[in-house]
Amino acid sequence: MKLVRLLANLGYGSRKQVAGLIAQGWVTGPDGQPLSADARVPHADIRLDGEPLDPAPGMVIAMNKPVGYTCSLRDAGRLVFDLLPPRFRLRKPALSSIGRLDRDTSGLLLFTDDGQRLHRIISPRSAIAKTYRVGLAEDLRGHEAELFAAGELLLEGETRALLPARLQVQSPRSALLTISEGRYHQVRRMFAATGNAVATLERIAIGGLELSALALEPGQWRLLDADQIDTVFQAPVA
């Protein structure tokens, strides 16, 4: 791929804008010398203003999503993409969140520009577990773990029962819940079905990838390496 097209696809600007950067000598090769617009140089050897380029297509990003942000590119208000470099919105292929967390839910959120990987992770066939830390408005009744594990719970307005889910009680009003589906507002609706309400909700793991292992403060993000991506497809830690 020619240099001008590569930089435009990575979101550094339109082809005209990128061509201007190249003409001004801002883009250099492995020897530190300016490159021409039609140069074909390995991605890893290119520098823009002395800095390595953003990752090539195929990247996966993990974010610790704060409460109050929406998983969208276009909705009103604060968006998760506001927490990423602005040029990430312009990448081709496009960068998308892998599934969603609602505005009032925090925690582990993944992004990728790899459509096949995205669909593999969200596909019901993959049955990738997701673990949430749940804070409740009222005390647990004591029957929730058995109810969720039975695989017979029917949410309001649905005709198909939920798959079995695991509840680990931590205190009268807090628990960890691991589910392998991604139905609309599923966790909140599960507790609503027991007569309770979710006060706080944080996703702490996707598959075997744990938010705590990434050491991300709310609003921070990082690029995942191949081993970390692989843990997404592993079972969560018991």
Strand content: 15-25%
Overall mean confidence score, pLDDT: 95
The ordered H/E elements are: HHEEEEEEHEHEEHEEHEH
**The CATH superfamily title of the largest domain:** Pseudouridine synthase I, catalytic domain, N-terminal subdomain
Number of helices: 7
According to DSSP, the number of beta strands is: 12
| Cα gyration radius (Å) | 22 Å
Can you name the CATH architecture of the largest domain?
2-Layer Sandwich
What is the overall shape?
elongated
Q: What is the name of the CATH class of the largest domain?
A: Alpha Beta
Domain unit count: 3
Could you name the key traits of this structure?
single chain, 238 residues, alpha+beta, Structural Genomics Hypothetical 15.5 Kd Protein In mrcA-pckA Intergenic Region, Chain A, Alpha-Beta Plaits, three-stranded antiparallel beta sheet, 7 helices
Can you put this structure into words, describing what you see?
This protein is of the alpha+beta class and 238 residues long. It has 7 helices and 12 strands. It has helices at residues 3-9, 15-23, 115-122, 144-149, 186-192, 211-214, 226-231, and strands at 27-28, 47-48, 51-52, 60-65, 96-97, 105-112, 130-136, 166-171, 174-179, 198-206, 209-210, 221-223.
What is the topology?
Blueprint: H1 3-9, H2 15-23, E1 27-28, E2 47-48, E3 51-52, E4 60-65, E5 96-97, E6 105-112, H3 115-122, E7 130-136, H4 144-149, E8 166-171, E9 174-179, H5 186-192, E10 198-206, E11 209-210, H6 211-214, E12 221-223, H7 226-231
Parallel strand pairs: 6-10
Antiparallel strand pairs: 1-2, 2-3, 4-6, 4-12, 5-6, 7-9, 7-10, 8-9, 10-11
Helix pairs in contact: 1-2
